[in-house]
Amino acid sequence: MKPIILTIVGFLLAIPPWTVGQEPPTADPRVDKAGRPNAGGEERAGKFEKKYPSDAAYPELELSRIAFGSCYRPGSRLRKGDPWDVWKVIKAIEPQVMLLLGDNHYADSQTPERIERGYRGLEADRPYMDFREEIPTFAVWDNHDYASKYPGKDFKYAARSEQLFLEHFRVPESDPRQSRVGVYGSWIFGEHPNRVQIIMLDGHRHRDQLPGKNGNFRSDPDPGKTFLGPEQWKWLEKQLAREAEMRVIGSPIQVLSKEHRWRRWDMFPKQRERLLDLVGEASGTTVFLSGDRHRGEISRLATEGRKPVCDVTASGYFHVREAEERNSLRVGKLINQPHFGALEVDWESRTVAMKVLCSREGTVLVEHEESILP
Ligand SMILES: [Fe+2]
């Protein structure tokens, strides 16, 4: 009997598990058997990584539709209660580029192995990767993907975290981001008088310790405290001196809203003033885009003698906070349902429409329009 039993056991062991009710594994050339990004994955990289190295101009591409968002958990669309494919919804508005404002995954760890696992989760997330391959994508990080909690320039594994970021976003060797500290970048699209400059700021790699604790961050008036660090500031000044009619500046945290106790540029008010001074002196109309808050809103600041600036917060494709919050700069309502953001530029009428859209239906939840000023 023994040989027969062994034969049956051997046969059962040889049956692949997916034949008894599980999904078959897909042969995904982007990841190896352990789920690590394949070295050859670059061949399947998004168009942006190949065509748009940072700190350069691309006059051949005139931008009029930009999508953006933050706070993504790889695979979360498959969990109970999150059954929809957000990338399909975003793709339906036909964005020319996508901006990821941080919390691009939630490794939430200060160990390099776990951060790497976070990126592996993204690499294995087929709808996300398919989107990336089709829509040029530009990214910065926030606290949950950079590390966890709130280390800034003192994060022990910052260099490794940065390397993993650059690998995942397929930043080419020739890109200046490969040779500097920080993941910030700048791109100018289109030709005069229809140029859009996209600037993505790194608010973590050079940042000083934050004043206070999560949910109770104070404002530290010390002019020596920095978000960007001297090198990034110098670089930003240079980028803003370049001519553009529209400037879109991505920041992981809110620039304008300052009446809450969560992270905001107002934690270092002198840094916020410096940023607003700089964009005030620059040509064109500036729109800030921000993430982090797990809510959506549009803020507008019009100071005397200065062009108005707006800050569109889009944070939470799936998960949002319910609570109301005071923000005297808000235009329209606070959005506390899952969402993403979009900018639509009408070069004929010289206007930009800022929108927060439902990430399930693609419907507009709040909208605001500004003129594009010289
Ligand atoms: Fe988040």
What would you say this structure looks like, in words?
- The protein is α/β, with parallel strands linked by helices and 374 residues long.
- The chain has one domain (48-371): Purple Acid Phosphatase, chain A, domain 2, CATH 3.60.21.
- It contains nine helices and 16 strands.
- α4 runs parallel beside α7 (158-168).
- Residues 1-46 have low confidence and may be disordered.
- The structure holds fe (ii) ion.
- Fe (ii) ion is lined by residues 71, 103, 144, 292, 294.
Summed up, what is this model?
This protein has 374 residues and is of the alpha/beta class. Helices cover 23% and strands 22% of the residues.
List keywords for this structure.
374 residues, alpha/beta, Purple Acid Phosphatase, chain A, domain 2, eight-stranded mixed sheet, six-stranded mixed sheet, 16 strands, binds fe (ii) ion
Quaternary structure: single chain
Put simply, the count of helices is: 9
First-to-last CA distance: 89 Å
Approximate helicity band: 10-25%
CATH architecture: 4-Layer Sandwich
Provide the CATH topology: Purple Acid Phosphatase, chain A, domain 2
Taken from the alpha-carbon principal axes, the silhouette is globular
Secondary structure layout:
Layout: H1 2-14, H2 47-51, E1 56-58, E2 65-69, H3 86-92, E3 97-100, H4 112-123, H5 126-134, E4 137-139, H6 143-146, H7 158-168, E5 185-189, E6 196-200, E7 212-213, E8 216-217, H8 229-240, E9 246-251, H9 269-281, E10 285-290, E11 296-301, E12 309-313, E13 330-335, E14 339-346, E15 351-358, E16 364-371
Helix pairs in contact: 4-7
The chain binds fe (ii) ion.
Fe (ii) ion (FE2) is lined by residues 71, 103, 144, 292, 294.
